[in-house]
Amino acid sequence: xxxxxxxxxxxxxxxxxxxxxxxxxxxxxxxxxxxxxxxxxxxxxxxxxxxxxxxxxxxxxxxxxxxxxxxxxxxxxxxxxxxxxxxxxxxxxxxxxxxxxxxxxxxxxxxxxxxxxxxxxxxxxxxxxxxxxxxxxxxxxxxxxxxxxxxxxxxxxxxxxxxxxxxxxxxxxxxxxxxxxxxxxxxxxxxxxxxxxxxxxxxxxxxxxxxxxxxxxxxxxxxxxxxxxxxxxxxxxxxxxxxxxxxxxxxxxxxxxxxxxxxxxxxxxxxxxxxxxxxxxxxxxxxxxxxxxxxxxxxxxxxxxxxxxxxxxxxxxxxxxxxxxxxxxxxxxxxxxxxxxxxxxxxxxxxxxxxxxxxxxxxxxxxxxxxxxxxxxxxxxxxxxxxxxxxxxxxxxxxxxxxxxxxxxxxxxxxxxxxxxxxxxxxxxxxxxxxxxxxxxxxxxxxxxxxxxxxxxxxxxxxxxxxxxxxxxxxxxxxxxxxxxxxxxxxxxxxxxxxxxxxxxxxxxxxxxxxxxxxxxxxxxxxxxxxxxxxxxxxxxxxxxxxxxxxxxxxxxxxxxxxxxxxxxxxxxxxxxxxxxxxxxxxxxxxxxxxxxxxxxxxxxxxxxxxxxxxxxxxxxxxxxxxxxxxxxxxxxxxxxxxxxxxxxxxxxxxxxxxxxxxxxxxxxxxxxxxxxxxxxxxxxxxxxxxxxxxxxxxxxxxxxxxxxxxxxxxxxxxxxxxxxxxxxxxxxxxxxxxxxxxxxxxxxxxxxxxxxxxxxxxxxxxxxxxxxxxxxxxxxxxxxxxxxxxxxxxxxxxxxxxxxxxxxxxxxxxxxxxxxxxxxxxxxxxxxxxxxxxxxxxxxxxxxxxxxxxxxxxxxxxxxxxxxxxxxxxxxxxxxxxxxxxxxxxxxxxxxxxxxxxxxxxxxxxxxxxxxxxxxxxxxxxxxxxxxxxxxxxxxxxxxxxxxxxxxxxxxxxxx
Length: 961
Known about the structure:
Layout: H1 8-16, E1 58-61, E2 67-72, E3 80-86, H2 100-107, H3 120-126, E4 135-139, E5 144-150, H4 155-170, H5 176-193, H6 196-209, H7 223-228, H8 231-241, E6 247-253, H9 257-268, E7 292-297, E8 304-311, H10 320-344, E9 353-359, E10 366-373, H11 379-396, H12 400-419, H13 426-439, H14 446-457, H15 462-470, E11 476-484, H16 491-504, E12 529-535, E13 540-545, E14 550-555, E15 563-569, H17 588-592, H18 600-606, E16 615-618, E17 623-629, H19 634-646, H20 652-661, H21 665-670, H22 673-684, H23 697-702, H24 705-718, E18 721-727, H25 731-739, E19 771-775, E20 782-789, H26 797-821, E21 829-834, E22 842-850, H27 855-871, H28 876-893, H29 897-904, H30 912-926, H31 929-939, E23 946-952
Parallel strand pairs: 2-6, 7-11, 14-18, 19-23
Antiparallel strand pairs: 1-2, 3-5, 3-6, 4-5, 8-10, 8-11, 9-10, 12-13, 13-14, 15-17, 15-18, 16-17, 20-22, 20-23, 21-22
């Protein structure tokens, strides 16, 4: 969904992270400072700062140098997050080791002293953790992070999880056979991840950093190194960098923190480093440069550019004085971003989108940059506009009204964060600690942050910010990096000349803009409640207003002062013309088009300081307006959504931005197998029905605002309306707010089942040759998608649940065969889909990324695995490893407002949904191996198998850019 919301939350993060977030420019170069080889004993940053750390954490350092942080968090109950952070990433690799750090991360799941190869994930699955969702790891330039999100905090789960992290920390075995198998997995990850965006990131990094190290140390590594490394070299890298003094363990959850701290000490105190510590290669010195440009051409990329200024890093520790400096810089950038946003939303915008950011990447540069997405390939206009705004704020600074607005928005965000502090999830809290390690900031609580900001806000003034603005874009620059789908006539020299010319243009001060009143406070006379039903077992209330609007309210305490609102209206995708192009791609233009009486930018000024949002989505049977707010802004949130329902602005300039964005989308999608799969699969799985099809290139170009308006207006004006409110709210307050907004609208009809002709959708028939699509990416990239038709949910609810577990077991076997045994692919997956609305519609599917020359062999492997499942029931262990993560995932989801917002939608109109909710867990718990076997016999026959192959386009068929 397209959302517009106050940028104050991002502003706060920039301030507290020491200006390390790079916003739009991060698409071209990562901007997190790294950790390097330490020369002093490990300590937490608060030991050398005048800032006190969050008092709810227990911080410590073991005698061996390993640090830890522990905190109790009982919300949600019975859950925990464990993290192992290693301060080593690709920037610690020597020449000839490119990719070692990431390879070691993979080997953490492939055998250790106490855990045989292939058993770690199985152990965690038996405890209810799902691989990927709850069990994961990542490697970046400066760090490697291992993540375990625990569904329960009993002694067995905690002890086992800590034991596994201890194994990762110092006990990996690096079997040569395991290394060889994992090599194929990593080459698959490299292959599948390589596309226009990554190639642009590499080129942009090389341009920005020059002779400095980061461009030559992308975490995925170099293919030749990956093909030639061996177990001994990996082990040596592991021993050099996986050392107690470079490690941090974080534990947050519903447990006794003193006991968990003792377990961490017991588990990790015997860890001793092996051999000499690693010595990181030098990162290189910053070179002084004149304005330069680099143009990177790829048909799969939009015409975008970023102008960057680079200077020496400040290397300052996190102190109160540094935070004050960061605050002033961040406020200036926030104001500049508002100006850029206003330009993008103007009648004749010089660009489609733009944004400024600051960074201190790897502590080897201090950067300030402005990104712009050109409209219609007019990069000159975009470049001139961003340089004009840069010079305007540099010379004339900010206005007092702009400063007060951003202070108000920041205060609102900090207030919301402080209010919700006690209901942050363990994962979020653990992430705060992990995120502070490489940035070297002191972790502070939302309460501390609010108090600090209030003290600083008293002395903030435009004059002070203007002094900051005058030096913000200092050092070498602008360095202009541009992506383009086709060559730029004249190349880099023309771009540099255009930048120099733009820098000569005279600029004036910005002008104060009038503040509009909010005109959407009343919607008519309230119609009153006709019926109320309390559903005790789910603690929800169903209400039916006299005007036909339905309201469902569920009060929760999952997240303090969070309220989610969803408005389901109209008939959605099923009501679209199946013979005409689907206009869904442009639905964001409705939100960006604002309201009849206010544009989006006027709304943002008028409603400054309030917490609200708006998004528009499309489901099969309805459209969805959605928002998120807090208690004191619930009335406003409902007014905003009711105004979009009754008085959308339909502004041509908003649609024009989306239309311009669509001009190159086909080239972008065609550049990777995943893009082609996402583009074509929806229609292919529905017999070519255009309601699920992405429009063709010519169809996109021919679509007009009137087409979008014609598709949506009937549902907006006269479709059924259902409001769902979930969160920290009482039923009475929710009723009162809806009473004055949606409850006051003219009469709306009751929802009715879609006509038979709208729900007639056909799955493709299996058993024949594969459907084939082509992409324009690398010649060794391909995707194989398979599907076995099943049936809809209502035809066989128990069978649908059996199909879900069958897909989970199919996924286990695919992973074991294709990833663990063969090393053929990075992440095979299986899924099950059973439609609620479309009679007879459902399927069990798999998707695998592989080289094209392995498609036939992998197809046979999938067919063999399916045949095995149809020939015998799954084992008891497979049932446990499939079922427990599903059940734990359901339980965890039910502790979130988002789950209930989705689950309750439509439940009033169709009581069968309530029955489905009530039966979900009991049915899954009762399913037997024989039930899964029966489902496999019924559905997984080879004559039912439908296949889609996305293969590389022959070279001779490709047009020259």
